[in-house]
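note to self: dont lose this again. the chain is below, predicted strucutre after it. 696 aa total, dont forget to put it in the shared folder this time
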Amino acid sequence: MRRMQLSIVIVNYDTSSMLRESLGSVLRESSGLDAECIVVDNHSPDGSARMVATEFPGVQLIANSVNVGFSTGVNQGLARARGEYVLVLNADTLMLAGSIRALVDFMDDHPDCGIAGPRLQYGDGRLQPSCRTFYSFKTLLLRRTALGRLLPDHPEARRHMMLDWNHGSVRKVDWVLGAAMMVRRRALEHVGPMDERYFLYLEDVDWCYRMKQAGWAVYFCPYSRVVHYYRQGSRDAGLFNPDLWIHLESAVRYYDKWGELAYLLKCYLAPMRLPAYVLLDAVLLVWAIWGWTDPPWSMAPIGIVLLTAGWLGHYRLRGGEGVAELVWRALMNVSLGLLASGLFFWMTRVPLPHLFRSRLALVQALPSGALTLALTRWLVLKLRRWLTRRRLTLRRCVIVGTDQTARQLADALSADPSLGYDVAGFVGTGAGAAPLLGRPDELPALAGAVRAQEVLFVQGGAGIEALMGPVVACRRLPLDVKIVLSSPEAYLFSANVVDLCDFTAVDLPGTPLDELSRALKRGFDLFVAVGALLLLSPLLAAIALAIRKADGGPALEELEHIGAGERPFRLLRFRTSPAGASTSAASEESPAGTPFQAFLRRHKLDKLPELFNVLTGEMSLVGPRPPLAEEVAGYRDWHHSRFVERPGITGLWQVEKLRKWRFDQMVRLDLYYVLNRSLALDLQILLKTLVMVLAG
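---
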């Protein structure tokens, strides 16, 4: 397809007379340019499409059978446009003399400009404020509520509208009105088209925001002047104006997508969904079952019913259940819960009449409890489905990878909104995927900038190890991670393998309370280390005296190892090498000095002083193996990902040492620990370590 200088895209709905005037001015002002004009008509009832086809045969016409909205209409025009620059216009604009040429020259002179907006004016020549700062909560109140009419000259509103500024000069701005904006083709290919979730309003704000995020500037160009017959339809007719509700819905979409508070709530309150569901069920079950039971015993069967429901998967929302399935599942949950509660009270010798007012009440409580659980789940699913249809609950994600598999995954997620994903863009070093947000080493910052809640890694030809650095970096943030596999290596991470649009993926849920879990781990380390040192202090003293008495050498030796963040530290151990031997890496493998020292090494008692390293924060009880400096010098890139955690006295590869792990396998085990760290896993490893030490 031949690339030309300029494409002009006009989106129209029910403004036939203004469209005729606008087209006349556009064709007149673009006559000296290599340009094309495209009109997208959104099923106008006033015959606009017929007028364009009859009176302007040289104009390309896209006549939609329904009103698809402004942003979708713009994207239809962009898909057909061939110009290096694309001028997007409302149908209620009039191009003044030299306006189009001025914009083209401005874009040529400013290669950093992704979008440029002209100086808009009303029909009587007055300045129309057409460049703004991005919305804040305060400006939203002042611009979109009655508060703005009470405080029309509030400084915050004037700052947002940029009223106290000379509009005769060039300036970089946050955003320009979508009534008239020129976009560069390269910027469009980098950032992508308008977000079609905005039917009308704020799609221009969103587009400019994404441009600035991607490094493209947005300019106000005063050399180009355009008349805009600004109607502000959402301000008329009060609450009964449909435009008002469209505007409010767009505002909700915008803040759901870009609002910092909304982003924090999504990231940090996600773990509260399950407790909220359980609390809701508990309240309604109290109402449903209370009448059939005698206090205080009524709370016991409710608790057992909830535990049984959770065990049977009641709180895993599948999304596709019908009413009959919901009722049946709730009936099974409550039946087994009441049966379990009766069995519990029988085993504890609590007479059943003390629990239920009669044996018949046990049967009467069953339907009310089952209907209550079914009703709550039905209401939750109905709300989720409604929000999904409105595309208001999509999880914003970035895809790491730019190959064909990554693009196919993005297309599949975008084509089916019921999957619940909004693809913000791609991260990688390849070409062909847009919008390209940046490089993998910038991933944590990029994810925060685009308000991503989830990162989808696509395993490329370089192997899964190449993803380890970015995966580990994301796991330290409140981000969910999925790894789309091209080979069966799920065991490296966890057994939680899921289907994602016909792709096989490993699901690593986010850890929004990561800092709290780290604090708990550190507190547990200190508690155990202090207790162990106090308890073992006589043994430690006896071992130290025995070593000194055996050959007169020091009881302790310090070996340089590499710890968290690749910082060196001095690891303490009881000396098991001969007196006078070098305290270097070789001393760990050298023969023991005495039979007693060999006994210490064989039973791992030489490691006990490492508890002091735990106290100082250089080590943890459980963690990756602390490597030597010479080992790290030979590491490959993905091996360095293990340094995000403190090294441990023990760890996964140590308790599985009988399998004779190769080095890469040991690193994979350390990475498994990094990606799946939990207090339960620590306790499991410590228990295995204790068994191995006692077994010799």
